[in-house]
Amino acid sequence: MWSKDDHKLLEALAPDALLFVGDLGNGEIRHVKAIKEITIPTAVVLGNHDRGTDNSGYQLKTQMQLLGDKDCSWSRRIWSSLPVVIVGGRPCSAGGGYFLSNQIRAVFGPVSLEESIERICSSSINTPHDYPLIVLAHSGPTGLGSDACSPCGRDWKLPEIDWGDKDLAVAIDKIQKIRSVDLVVFGHMHHELKKGKGIRKTFLMDKKRSTAYLNAASVPRKGTDEHMNLISHFSWVEFIDKKLCHASHRWYREDASVAYQENLFNLN
Ligand SMILES: [Fe+2]
């Protein structure tokens, strides 16, 4: 969830770029209107909860139009001021392999699994190889584990299975044959597992391919610290040149001080 109140904090944190993994709300326009006003480089892939309640796709299309070039669905974002490439996955995914909602069909047509793979891959073509490439998606790819606590594991019913997206996994594999994929960032599967089963594994590093996988879905992303100060969650990553050197989950107070930090990765 993102609101105008977040802008002041964002101004103080001053990241080089801000990525949204979707599930902003339930199709309410106010969230995308607030995101539209962000002035730093921003990329968004909408989630299954953003698709709207109308099967016509009108609510979804309205949000995408408001986001304009911040919307990274099946496309890429490259900014002249920032050496990074963002490749967007399929919008509004609910995970579970491959499935198109009525709203996605209404807006994009009956996109097949193969077409989705092609759309993601083609967004990476002719991108500067000396820039880090970040894949941004709502649901993560298959292949990250089949336990409930895996980054994309199904935790709400048995059996525990891999609930990632197949098109994204195949696309990442194909892109990796051409160039590096330095980070895959996604949401959808909440960090806190259902039925008190614990906390999800939110970071994996494929050392062989130097690809990091980060689940950013801390839900709710707002809460309070022990002194009842309002805190907001951000997943934070840093690159040195092309190499990921740091990843963490951070909960910031309104004055931009860090209330809690969970370190996920530090380059030795
Ligand atoms: Fe979701």
Structure overview:
With 268 residues, the protein is α/β, with parallel strands linked by helices. It has a single domain, classed as Purple Acid Phosphatase, chain A, domain 2, CATH 3.60.21.10. It contains 6 helices and 12 strands. It has a 6-stranded mixed beta sheet, with no helix packed on it. It has a 4-stranded antiparallel beta sheet with strand order 9-10-11-12, with no helix packed on it. It has a two-stranded parallel ribbon with strand order 1-2. Helix 2 (29-36) packs parallel to helix 3. It is globular and about 50 Å long. The chain starts with 5 loop residues before the first helix and ends with a strand. The mean pLDDT is 96. Fe (ii) ion binds next to loops.
Q: Any key phrases for this structure?
A:
268 residues; alpha/beta; Purple Acid Phosphatase, chain A, domain 2; six-stranded mixed beta sheet; 6 helices; 20% helix; binds fe (ii) ion
List the helices and strands and how they pair.
Layout: H1 6-13, E1 18-20, H2 29-36, E2 42-44, H3 58-67, E3 76-79, E4 82-88, H4 102-108, H5 113-122, E5 133-136, H6 166-176, E6 183-186, E7 203-206, E8 211-215, E9 222-224, E10 230-240, E11 243-253, E12 258-266
Parallel strand pairs: 1-2, 4-5, 5-6, 6-8
Antiparallel strand pairs: 3-4, 7-8, 9-10, 10-11, 11-12
Bound molecules: fe (ii) ion.
The site of fe (ii) ion has 6 residues, from loops.
